[in-house]
Amino acid sequence: MDVNEFRKRGKEMVDFMADYYENVDKVPPMSTVQPDYLYSLIPQEAPEEPESFEDIQRDIKTKIMPGMTHWQSSNFFGWFPCNSSFPAMLGDMASSMFNIVGFNWICSPAATELETVVMDWLGKLIGLDSKFMAIKEDG
C-alpha cells in the first residue's frame, strides 16, 4: 500500500467508523451468533495472497460485525458505560501512527514524560497525596 492508497483507504475507514456510530442503534446490541460461527465463514488456512480492501471491508460487515456486541449502542444496557469516543479514536490513530516502543525513557522521552504528567493529573484528580506524584511540587 502506497501513501496515496493509504490516504484513500484511511478516509474510507473514517467514513465507515462514522457510519457505524450513526447507525449502531439500528442493529441488535447483542450478538445473535452461536459459538464457532466464524469457523465456517473464513478460510481454515491463512491466505497466501493479500485480499483487496473492498473484500476486507465486506468481511468486516458480513462476518465480523454479526458476532459483535455493540457496546456503544444506546440500546446496550450492559456492564460498562460507553467506552469510546471520537476524540479517543483520533488519539488511537495518532498513537498507531507513531507505534513507539516505550519501555524506557531513552526509547521515547516524549511518551515516558507524557505518561508521567498524565498520571500526575489523574492522581491529583482523585485526591492522592503529593508523595504519590512523580513530580513533586515541593521539589
Please describe what this structure looks like.
The chain is mainly α and 139 residues long. The protein has two domains: 3-98, dopa decarboxylase, N-terminal domain, CATH 1.20.1340.10; 100-139, no CATH class. Helix content is 45%, strand content 0%. The protein is built from four helices and no strands. The chain has helices at 3-23, 53-64, 86-98, 109-125. It is extended, with a radius of gyration of 21 Å. The mean pLDDT is 90.
Q: What's a concise summary of this model?
A:
By secondary structure, the protein is an all-alpha fold. Helix content is 45%, strand content 0%.
Q: Key features?
A:
single chain, mainly alpha, dopa decarboxylase, N-terminal domain, 2 domains, 4 helices
Q: What is the domain tally?
A: 2
The proportion of residues in beta strands is under 5%
Determine the number of helices (DSSP H or I, runs of at least 4 residues).
Answer: 4
**Class computed from helices, strands and strand pairing:** mainly alpha
